[in-house]
Write a structure and sequence with these properties.
Antitoxin; about 10% strand; about 55% helix; rod-shaped; Antitoxin_Phd/YefM; 3-stranded mixed β-sheet; 3 strands; YefM-like_sf
Length: about 120
C-alpha cells in the first residue's frame, strides 16, 4: 500500500547522535524509526544521514518519477507547438503570407500591442 508523501525539513526531524547508533546497534535504530518515523543521525551535532523507512523512500522515488513525467509532458507539448509554428514558416507560401500581414492594417481592437507578447 502506498504511503502519502510527507517531507519534513531536516531541522524538524528527530535527531540521534552517531554514538547512540553505535551503542544501540541496528536493532535500536530500527526501534527509534518505528517510534519516530525517521531519524537524523548527527556527528558533532551536524546532520550526516537521514534514516527513513523503505516505504517512504519508495514514495519519494514515485513522486520524483511523477514530477519528471509531468515535466517531460509539458516539454513535449511546448516542442509540439514550436514545431507546428516552425512548419507554418517553412510552407511554400510563408513569405507571401508574412508580406501580406506586414502590409495590411493592424487589428488592435482597442488594445496596445508591443514586443514579443503580441
Amino acid at each position: 500500500m502506498a504511503l502519502p508523501l510527507k517531507l519534513d525539513a531536516i531541522e524538524d526531524l528527530p535527531r540521534t547522535p552517531a554514538s547512540d547508533v553505535k551503542k544501540l546497534g541496528w536493532r535500536g535504530v530500527m526501534k527509534a524509526i518505528g517510534r519516530m518515523g525517521k531519524v537524523v543521525v548527527t556527528n558533532h551535532n551536524e546532520p550526516e544521514a537521514v534514516i527513513i523507512p523503505a516505504e517512504e523512500y519508495d514514495a519519494m522515488i514515485r513522486a520524483l518519477h511523477e514530477a519528471e513525467a509531468k515535466n517531460d509532458s509539458a516539454l513535449d507539448e511546448l516542442r509540439h507547438r514550436f514545431d507546428e509554428r516552425l512548419a507554418s514558416l517553412q510552407a511554400a507560401d510563408a513569405g507571401d503570407r508574412l508580406r501580406a500581414l506586414m502590409h495590411g492594417p493592424a487589428k488592435l481592437r482597442g488594445k496596445v500591442k508591443a514586443g514579443a507578447s503580441h
